[in-house]
Amino acid sequence: MPFFFTSNALYPSNSFPPVLRALSTINPLSHLVSGIRYFAIGSDFSAIGIHYNYTHGEILGSYLALLAFAGIMFFIARWRFTKVTVT
């Protein structure tokens, strides 16, 4: 649940307090939501009175952040599974 509330899924991250804004930048859900908005709606749109404008660089950065997160989680899972013994 904390991942959802610190992401930009409900509110724009520039309206967050500084601490939540910092958490939002490292939150993988924020990067996922940005990518979904970009590919589903487009790079320039308005919703509930807020204007969004995504550049290709921002979307590429979000994609790379998600790729890094997936890679880190993969290696953590692999490390944990090598420690398991099946009896």
TrEMBL record:
Q: Membrane-spanning residues where?
A: 59-77
Q: Tell whether Membrane is among the UniProt keywords.
A: yes
Residue ranges annotated for the ABC transmembrane type-2 domain, each copy included: 1-84
Q: Which UniProt keywords apply?
A: Membrane, Transmembrane, Transmembrane helix
Write the protein's name. ABC transmembrane type-2 domain-containing protein
Q: Which organism is it from?
A: bioreactor metagenome
Organism phylogeny: unclassified sequences, metagenomes, ecological metagenomes
